[in-house]
Amino acid sequence: MENLLSVPIKNDIYYIGTNDRETPLFEGMWPLPNGVCYNSYLIKGEKNIIIDLVRANTTTDYVNKIKEIIGDEKIDYIIINHMEPDHTSSIGSILEIYPDVKIVTNKKAIALLDAYYHVEDNIIEVKEGETLKLGDREFTFYMTPMVHWPESMVTYEEKTKTLFSQDIFGGFGTLDGGIFDDEVEYDRFYLEETTRYFINIVGKYAGQALKALNKLGGLDIELICPVHGPVWRDNPEKIIDIYTSLAKQETIDGCVVIYGSMYGNTKVMAEAVARGLSEGGLKNIKLRDISKTSLSYLLSDIWRYRGVILGSCSYDNNLFPPMEYLLTEISHQRMKNNIWGIFGSYSWSGGALKNLKKYMEDGKYNVLDTQLEIKGTANHDELESLIDFGREMANEILNK
Ligand code: FEO
Questions:
Q1: CA–CA distance from 81 to each of 52, 71, 125, 145, 260 (Å)?
Q2: Quick one: pLDDT band at residue 400, thresholds 50, 70, 90?
Q3: Atom 1, ligand 1: which residue's CA is nearest?
Q4: pLDDT tens, 30-86?
Q5: Name one Pfam family in it (predicted).
Q6: What's the 113 CA to ligand 1 centre distance in angstroms?
Q7: Distance (Å, rounded) from C-alpha 165 to C-alpha 238?
Q8: Is the minimum distance from the CB of 20 to ligand 1 under 6 angstroms?
Q9: What domains, with CATH codes, occur in the chain?
Q10: End-to-end CA distance of the chain
């Protein structure tokens, strides 16, 4: 049968993933301006095997792809590497079409299958390092807890040296025609979306991600089939290196200045600081208005740039609420390789700088001693101080 909807990969492994350009927010909170894909794989053979499913809203496309490959044959097994509903919520429809299918997964996922979908029957449990023969194919399973959920695992086929890596090595963005790493301009588009995905979704589990990457480092891998983003057949080392760098929280020479401003005074201060960063020799500078920028992009910038400067106006004796929310999220991310800077606008009550300082002290952050607080609109001398502060941060970043 011709492959018009699905894409052959190799040795009877087919790409049957789907694109989602309708859902505005991943997990209900991370913007998807470029959509997201839910990758799934079908192995046709003595037994027909699916590895990872798709989200329910794309089931129609999905079933058409399956049918294109196997026609009226049945699916014998579904291997579930990860239970998050973007990869499992089509299961009800699939079980209606293929009621005798056996599900292969681990103990933690079995509990979640029951909890989420009330599926309890026809399940084969696999354990860490176990090899299972399904028809003429043989798979080995490795647990990768917390990357991204506690039940997450990966599936490796030694014969084809293929790693079905679930969320690991994934990224945001639909696959618009090109499926493989050698069919897309990865650095132009997917690199940014992979970085944001890693930091938003996996970032707080970076330690576990590193452990998982070390564990997988012993495998001979020629093909990586993740559940989001391109399939890696040409240069799988590249995505392994990108993920390893992200998991290690390696930072680049640059600074993000995030400000919260009600009437523009804190914004002017932030721009003076940014001018100082530039005068200090820094070229990679980003200014972010916290009121207009999704947490998704703020966290992504903070993770990547060595320098982070937070400037907040005071709001009813306290921090600007969006800044308070950002600080709460930063503490969940456990970032460890940044140099921090803070400044505040006093308004009529103060409160911003006082709370930024407390947050930095409580979290034992590496923060610069210069911490400016300005009443109302910055005057000439205060603008000079803010520019000097930017220069100081640039020196810290570049001399490190
Ligand atoms: Fe793509 Fe953690 O699900």
A1: 6, 25, 12, 11, 41
A2: low
A3: 167
A4: 999 999 999 999 999 999 999 999 999 999 999 999 999 999 999 999 999 999 999
A5: Flavodoxin_1
A6: 15
A7: 15
A8: no
A9: 7-247 (3.60.15.10), 253-398 (3.40.50.360)
A10: 59
Q: Which atom number of ligand 1 is nearest to the Cα of residue 167? A: 1
Report d(CA 333, CA 326) in Å as an integer. 11
Amino acid at 377: T
What is the atom index within ligand 1 of the atom nearest the CA of 227? 1
**Closest residue to atom 3 of ligand 1, CA basis:** 84
